[in-house]
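ok so i was messing around last nite and threw this chain in just to see what happens. nothing serious, just curious
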Amino acid sequence: MTIHTSHPFLEPEGQRDPVRRLRGRLAGTVSLWTTGTGAGREGLTVSSWMVAGGEPGRVLGLLDPDADLTEELVASGRGVLQLLDWADRGLAEAFAGTAPAPGGPWRLAGWVGTDHGPRLEHAHTWALLSVESVAEVGWSSLVTCRIDEVVVGDDGDPLVHRRGRFVPPARDAV
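result:
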């Protein structure tokens, strides 16, 4: 076994996609989007999303068009967005499909059933969403959702994604 000091699959400097590199420079708070019930539950880790103010407010998410979550979310028209904390790194990896989850990612945490889908039991901040529109944008589906209900709790140690990895939360300067 060889241990590499650099990423073994990284493309040479001149061949890297500049749009992907630009996107990687943007830090994003990691959320978990869920929908469905019973065996039809789906979830996906998402860091490409934003909130638009208004009455009602909206959430805009760039979702993988091939993800089971995207298909079920659009079909059901409802979902749950919950913010993840630094302690939820393993859960985020499992729902992103980048870490093993024996028995499936749903076994890694407790869930509360809602009429919009499963909500992470220990989530401090979450929103119930209704899908308003879907549009193809680049390699993603831009899903615009109305915020039906929102709970904003403690802002502990948010899970942040930047340059392809989770980074420890920055402490606000006071």
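not much to say yet. DSSP finds three helices and twelve strands in the chain.
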